[in-house]
Design goal:
single chain; mainly beta; six-stranded antiparallel β-sheet; five-stranded mixed barrel
């Protein structure tokens, strides 16, 4: 588990990677110049359709958007704004995420883009991963096996 330099005990934080296998499923790119907000660790992002340069990322605009990946925690920067570099965890990575409700271990998950949380998939929005831990309630931290880019892209 990653430990933040300001922590007094090890506790998971949204956006930490876990259960690394040695194979990197993190893509380095940048925040789109058209992104008006700030991307934070653990937030779902989509890839911008733009020419040239590194891949560029934007916040989701709806729960139905196809998630490309999730912003990786960085001890130096708490947020990423337009033009900044950002690392994005994609398919096969395991990331600590915040549950938006009770979740069963092994459940397929979807994103609630307004809260940056995951909930059990209701078969209407894209699946973004599988819960590796059980969440008893809203705001519990769980590990998620990321399954993006969405296979139906």
């Amino acid at each position: 588990m990653t430990q933040n330099t300001n922590q007094f005990a090890q506790t998971p934080e949204q956006g930490f990677l876990d259960l690394q296998t040695g194979v990197s499923n993190v893509l380095n790119g940048g925040v789109s110049l058209s992104e008006a907000g700030t991307l934070i660790a653990g937030q779902a992002v989509k890839i911008e359709d733009s020419a040239g340069g590194v891949p560029k990322f934007l916040k989701l605009a709806a729960n139905t958007d196809k998630t490309f990946g999730f912003v990786v925690f960085n001890q130096k920067d708490t947020g990423f704004t337009a033009g900044m570099g950002a690392s994005i965890a994609i398919d096969g990575s395991v990331m600590w995420m915040t549950a938006g409700a009770a979740i069963a271990r092994g459940a397929k998950l979807e994103v609630v883009y307004t809260t940056n949380k995951v909930i059990t998939n209701a078969a209407t929005n894209p699946v973004v991963g599988i819960a590796l831990d059980k969440a008893a309630a809203d705001n519990d931290m769980i590990r998620v096996l990321i399954q993006t880019p969405n296979k139906s892209l």
